Amino acid sequence: MDFYSAVQTTNNLLRQRQPQSFNSSWIRQFAPQVYRFIQKNIRSEIGVIDWDRFTRALDMKFQRQWHSSWRKGTKLYRDKTEVEIILRRYNDKLYTFITQKNKNDKCTCDIISIALVRIAQKGNMLAKQKIIKLVSFTINEWIENYPQISRWEGYHTLIQENIEGCIRRYRYSGSFMGYLFRTLEYAGRGLKPLIAYSLEDSLYSGEQRRIDKIGQDPETGEIIIYS
Predict the structure, then answer these.
(1) What is the pLDDT of residue 217?
(2) Which of 116, 144, 180, 205 is least surrounded by CB atoms within 10 angstroms?
(3) 32/38 Cα distance (integer angstroms)
């Protein structure tokens, strides 16, 4: 068995049995040969089974149904080696947290972020600090380029709280960065801008000014802010 056949076997089995959700125990029960292959061959940088790598290869529908196991009462610790193993492997790709040239960069950014998040979820405080620092660069870019995230400018403490919340809650296979973006988008809807702006400031792409978003209702005289 190879990686491709393990993925296809699991996809076919999920289509056949149609569970509402599944996890590693489900695979061990219904596809023991797949589980043995994964256990032996699909390992993360720190030596544990890399379920994220495997589930990312499944059909999108099944990725959403994956539920990783979770242990309550995680003991906090500080292990610099675990973090450095990941950073050394992806040292030349850390720029993807600041800018992404293509889809491969986007995928790489997710792989790095998920690897650090999983270690942070185990209780490694240094991994948590590192992923918060890296995604903070990304969030700064989002604030500059996405209107739905721009209102977060100036809310540094609240941004960190939301990052930490996403690290704790992230369970499923899929994009951690996408999950973080959506969390900030939804949570930021009620935020009031903290930064004073000039109406002559350029907006996002630079094609418009802030004043271009403001108009007046010809009938009522009320000020209108266009989306």
Answers:
(1) 54
(2) 205
(3) 10
Position 89 in a domain? yes
pTM greater than 0.85: no
Residue 84 is assigned to a structural domain of this protein: yes
The pLDDT tens digits for 157-186 are 999 999 999 999 998 767 899 999 999 999
Cα of first residue to Cα of last residue in the chain, in angstroms, is 53
CA 179 to chain centroid: 5
The answer on 101 and 59 residing in a single domain is no
Rounded Cα gap, residues 141 and 159, in angstroms: 13
And the tokens for 163? 């990052």
Section 36-47 average pLDDT: 90
- Residues 125 and 208 grouped into a single domain: no
Q: Does the residue 117 lie in any domain?
A: yes
